[in-house]
Amino acid sequence: MTMSNGAGGRRRPPTIHDVAREAGVSRGTVSRVLNGGHYVSPAAAEAVNAAIRKTGYVVNRHARSLITGRSDSVGFLLTEPQERFFEDPNFNVLLSGCTQALAAHDIPLLLMLAGTKDERRRITRYITAGHVDGVLLVSSHSGDPVAEELREAGVPLVQCGKPMGLRSKVSYVAADDRDGARDMVRHLLSLGRRRIGMVSGPLDTPGGVDRLAGYKEVLTEAGVEIDERLVVSGDYSRASGEAGAERLLAQAPDLDALFVASDLMARGALTALHRAGRRVPEDVSVGGFDDSVAATEAVPALTTIRQPYDRVSAEMVRVLLAQIGGEDPAAVILPTELVKRDST
Amino acid sequence: MTMSNGAGGRRRPPTIHDVAREAGVSRGTVSRVLNGGHYVSPAAAEAVNAAIRKTGYVVNRHARSLITGRSDSVGFLLTEPQERFFEDPNFNVLLSGCTQALAAHDIPLLLMLAGTKDERRRITRYITAGHVDGVLLVSSHSGDPVAEELREAGVPLVQCGKPMGLRSKVSYVAADDRDGARDMVRHLLSLGRRRIGMVSGPLDTPGGVDRLAGYKEVLTEAGVEIDERLVVSGDYSRASGEAGAERLLAQAPDLDALFVASDLMARGALTALHRAGRRVPEDVSVGGFDDSVAATEAVPALTTIRQPYDRVSAEMVRVLLAQIGGEDPAAVILPTELVKRDST
DNA sequence: CTGGTGTCTGTGAGCGTTCACAGTAGAGAA
DNA sequence: TTCTCTACTGTGAACGCTCACAGACACCAG
C-alpha cells in the first residue's frame, strides 16, 4: 500500500515545484506561503497547504540557505576541558534548555566542544566561515579570547555568565551572583555562625569575584571581621572544592560554616569535612551555589542558591535570535533564590 | 591595516570563483582540489592551495549540499527524559566522544533531545526530511519505535547498545554486557560472598537482560542457588538503585554482596546501605557497571565493570559513516574490564 | 602517420530555493 | 471613462557549488 522506497535507498523528495504544480500556482506563491503568507489570497494559501500535506513536502534548507545567506542554525560552544563537561550537570541543563528553546523556532543546535587549543581554532574557523548564524557560548574562565575573536568577526554571540573585559559589547545572560552570595551569607549569619569560610570560584571571572564580594559585604555590614585565612578559591570542580575545604580546615580550624561557590565544589567540601570528622550541619553549616542536581544528590542535601537555569537558557536564545535579527547586544541579569535543605 | 568588515556586518566571503581567478585556473580544477585532488597536476594543485590560503576561502556547505544531496552533518538523538540526561554523566562521555570523532571528518553534530512524544515526532520529521545524513541513537529503553521508523525511512542509523527486536537489521555498538556481568559476579564469589543480590537494568532491554543472564550463569556454574528474592530491577536512575537496594534488604536481609547494573544505581544503593547501617565493603560488597565518573566520585569508590565509552563512540561514528557511504549495517561488540576499587 | 590511452583542464547545466520585478485584476476616486 | 492604488501572482535570475562532458595534450604502439 505505501509506496515504500526500496531497501535503504531514499526517494527524491518533493520540491517546491511539485507543490506548485499540485496546487496549481507558481513557485513564488508557494514560497510566499512558506515564509509568512503575506500577499497571498486565502484560496491560494489553502491550496498550497493542501498540496504540502499531500506531497509531504519539506523545505530544502540548503537551497534556502544558499540564497538567504543564513544557515538557520546556531552553535553551542563549550570552551571547557572534557573532565569538567563530564562531571558538571549544569552543562546538561543549559544544553537541554537551549536545545528546546531553539526547537521552538525550528533551529537546530550544533554542539561544539572546544576543550583544547586545536579544537578551539578549528571551531573558530568553522564559525567565522558563516556555517552558523550565531553562537551560544558557555565558558567559566571568561578570560579566553574566543568571545572577542568571534565578536570581531561579526558573529552574533551570547555568553552565559558575565564576561571579564568590557573591551567590546558582548551580550550575556547571568544570574545575580553578588545578590545570591549575600543571601547565603545572611542565612548563615542568621544561624548564629560567625566563622564563615568561603571557597570562591576562580577570581579571573566576574562570577567568582562577585560571589566573593557579596560574601565580604554582608560580613562587613554585620560587623564581622574579614579573615583572609577563611578564604580560598577553586575552579568549580569537585576536586578543587575538596582541596579548598581541606586548606581552610588547616588555616582556620575554628570555622563553623562554609560558603562554597558551586554545588559541585560543595560536595567536595562535604567529603573533606567528613574525613576531618566534622558533622554537617551540626559542627559546620555548608552552603552551595547553583542548585544543580549535585545539590539534591549530596548527603546531606545542600542548602544552596538557585540559579534559574531554565530562564538563563531561554534568555540566551532570545537575546541571540534578536541579535541575529539585527538588534544590539544586550545584558540580562536574573534573580537568584535561597533554597534551604539539610546542610545548614 | 586589516581590512576589517564594518561594525557587526560580515563581508561577503570569497567563492570558488575568486579562488579560481586568483589561481589562474577554472572552477572545476578548484573543485577537484577540494575533493581529493585526483586528476589535478601538482602545479595546479599548489596554485589553488596558495589561492585558498591567500583568499581565506572556506567552502560553502549549503551550495555543496544542494547539489550532492548530502548534508555532511549527523544527528545525535537521545530519547531519554530530561532528568536522566541531567543526572547521568555517561551521556556526556558519549556525546563528547562522538563530537570529537566526527570533528576528525569535519562533520558537525546536531544535538537532538527527544524526551517527550511531541519532540520525538518533530525530530523524526526533521531527520526523515534529509536534514542529516545519519543518526547516532542513544536510548536505554530500546523498545521505542524510533529506530525502526528511521530505518524504514532509509536513514543510516547506529544505536548505542543492543536493540531489542531484530525485525530489521540495524547497526549497533555495545559492550559485552553478559561477559562483564560474569566477571563481576566471579569477582564477588572470589571474595567469599555467596548471598549476592542484584539490581538489574530494565528487563525490556537486551542490556538489562544480558547482565542479569551473566549473573545467573556464573552463580549456577559455581553451584550457588538462584534466589529470586535477591533480584530486583531498576531503570538505571540513581533513585531506582536506592529503591532497589532497599527492597532487597527487606526481602533478603542476609545478603553479603550487591551487583548493581549501573554506577548511578550503585550510588543509590550505597545510600540505602548506609542508611540501613551496613558497612561497605565490610558487611556488603558492592559492584557497579559502566565505570563512569559516578564510580570514582562514590564513597567508597566503586568497583565496577568498565565500558570502553571512548571506543564505543569512535565505533559508532565509524560504522555510521560507513553506512552513509553505502555499506551494510554492522554490529560491534566491545570487551569490558573489571576495575577494582574500594567497595569490594 | 594514425589511433588509442591516459592525464589534465574548462564549460555549461542544474541542484531548490528566494528575491526583485513586472504584470494582472479589481476597487475606488476623479 | 480613465487613472491610481492595492492585492495578488508569475517569471527570470541569481546563490555557490559539483558533475558530466568534451576538448587538449602528451605519449606510446602499430
TrEMBL record, chains A, B:
<keyword id="KW-0804">Transcription</keyword>
<keyword id="KW-0805">Transcription regulation</keyword>
<dbReference type="InterPro" id="IPR046335">
    <property type="entry name" value="LacI/GalR-like_sensor"/>
</dbReference>
<keyword id="KW-0238">DNA-binding</keyword>
<dbReference type="InterPro" id="IPR028082">
    <property type="entry name" value="Peripla_BP_I"/>
</dbReference>
<dbReference type="InterPro" id="IPR000843">
    <property type="entry name" value="HTH_LacI"/>
</dbReference>
<dbReference type="InterPro" id="IPR010982">
    <property type="entry name" value="Lambda_DNA-bd_dom_sf"/>
</dbReference>
<dbReference type="Pfam" id="PF00356">
    <property type="entry name" value="LacI"/>
</dbReference>
<protein>
    <submittedName>
        <fullName>LacI family transcriptional regulator</fullName>
    </submittedName>
</protein>
<dbReference type="GO" id="GO:0000976">
    <property type="term" value="F:transcription cis-regulatory region binding"/>
</dbReference>
<dbReference type="GO" id="GO:0003700">
    <property type="term" value="F:DNA-binding transcription factor activity"/>
</dbReference>
<dbReference type="Pfam" id="PF13377">
    <property type="entry name" value="Peripla_BP_3"/>
</dbReference>
<feature type="domain" description="HTH lacI-type">
    <location>
        <begin position="14"/>
        <end position="68"/>
    </location>
</feature>
